[in-house]
Design goal:
13 helices; 37% helix; 365 residues; globular; alpha/beta
Length: 365
Amino acid sequence: MTRLIVAAGGGGDAVAAAMLHAALYGDEHQAVILTYAWDRLLIDPLPGPRRPADFTGLERLTPYVWSVPAQARPIEPAGSTLPRLAAELPATFALLDPHQGAVGLTRQLESLVDHVQPASIDLLDVGGDILAQGDEPTLKSPLADALALTACCQLNAPVRLLVAGPGLDGELAPEAMTSALGPVVRMLTAGDTAAIRGILEWHPSEATGLLAATARGVRGTCEIRDAGLPVLLTDESPAVHEVDLDDALSRNQLARAIMSTAGLDEAEAHSRELCGYSEIDYERNKALWLNEQQPTNLDPAAILAQLAQFEAEARTRGATHTTFRRITEALSLSGAKRDELRQLLIASRPKQYEAPLWRIDANES
């Protein structure tokens, strides 16, 4: 029996989909995870999502959908976490390509459903920004979720929308979505994270990392992203809620506006009009800035001194934890140095590593 999970935002949502599949359905059911190849710039230096032509070694599932097996490779300079996920997780990863807009996504979804005949279809969003109206000042990345939502709403098959870890992506406060959240279908536990434990040692997703951390019992305030957004880690953070799909569509202005789009550029234009920006524009601008940065070698003594200053400042902001992405950017290092920095810090101060987060001790080390 096959279960289909659509990872609304790509990236870490695909990892969370694997965790949720194991938690809800166990080993008796095959997971097919339909996801964008849309990773952070520290993985993929090219802005926006990748399309099938950006890979070698894909396998055709339907006339409109390709799977990403372990032997697939992104064509440089593109990057993607999907081949490694396929190698390390017992799931089939199918590529969601938004370059033909919502019309193309709906066609892909329909053809995949016809091909695999899933016992269930779940649309998963970590954080809950899929429930945003579009004008929230903290909203940063509405387009990917809106495209996935509108495609699922146009599918002639029942789809269950699941929101995991309300507020953990730092984009929409939990209280802003409380009225839309339905029953809790799963309160994730430490045992549920076993399915992705090894993945979180290298995957840069912050929201899914926070979801796993809270499932393991971590509580406090975590700074994320380059802006240092504070995210509360509470007893409600590991919850997975069911949400009415039509209600989500009625809230999401962008999803309604892009239902008939036949190209990603067209969908982007609606995002700029309704939300005031496109997340791909942000990636384009940031990519230009990153390209101008000079490569640097890590000096352990200097890094630890900079870390001490960062931690002291973070404590004054009330932070108890942070992510390695946040530390990397706060120390003005390139994303390519994230893993090296992570290894240095864990080796130097192992007691501050609360996988996959970094704990900011109350008193300076």
